[in-house]
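Posting for a labmate who doesn't have an account.
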Amino acid sequence: MAKEQKRYGLGIDLGGTKILAGVVDLESGKIIGSSRKKTHAERGAKAIEDRVKEVTQEALDAARLPTNGSIVGIGVGAAGQLDHKNGVILASPNLPFENFPLAKQLQGQFNLPVTLANDVEAAAYGELYHGAGKGCPLFVCVFVGTGIGGGIVQDGKLFRGVSGTAGELGHMTVVAGGRLCPCGSRGCLEAYASRTAMTHAIAGEVKRGRPSVVKAELEAGTGVLRSGHFADAINAKDELVIQTVHEASDYLGYGLASIINFYNPQKIILGGGVIEAMDVIFDRATQRAREIALPAPSRTVEFARAALGDNAGMVGAATLAGGGDR
């Protein structure tokens, strides 16, 4: 008797800092081969496209599919606003893409169907099927990293809105006329609570003469602080970093409270490198949100960490590629 054919999806998480690709067992959500590279967004769209193709091929090579297995499609979770139907990245605050046909490029390279989704939208789908959202029909994912993104699940399906851009929670206004955001607007949540925002705030204070253990990293050339740098500084009781993280956590709490009041979700799932690296942000932001939100929805909402961690976007993208909600 012939073995039953196993189905796999290849998921790609394309963010402002990293590109992560993996081959995923669509039944279990298990990753059987993966690869990771830095994005290097400053090198331009074509260079990023080439890196995506490289990391995809490396994941395929690492997977070593069983003889009874086949990859049914490629899913890409990309930061930015998308044309889902045509597989085009319309614009992205943290990536140098404008009307870029990424799905077509990948399909031509690997001869597989390609599904394109927002990166946190993909993460929400991964959590829905294989993580903290399993069995929950109404929830919101909020991922904090280079920027801040969101994904909305309604009646067990992704909700994308009329233009396909629903869930851009990082670009809700938390300070009228406030800090300039990479999207071009002012006062966005992303400009106050993302890792990029915290890095800029700390760099400004260091330049003014305030001491910090992260000064060497800021002056090393890239001027980029990773989530691990923040965690190490907090453990070292760095006053400037702790103050900045607390402020960012409060702003994130304001954003979460707005989500609670407007959408009344059953659950809010928080993920991304910043949430994974620093317990204080999850704890302080969720406490602040409960204090600020209206009493009734505040009492009923449940907060959870993304169960899939850094792999949520990749697993979700692969699941979408396997015939999920498009």
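Reply:
Got it, the structure tokens are right above this. Residues 6-128+311-321 form a domain with the Nucleotidyltransferase; domain 5 fold (CATH 3.30.420.40).
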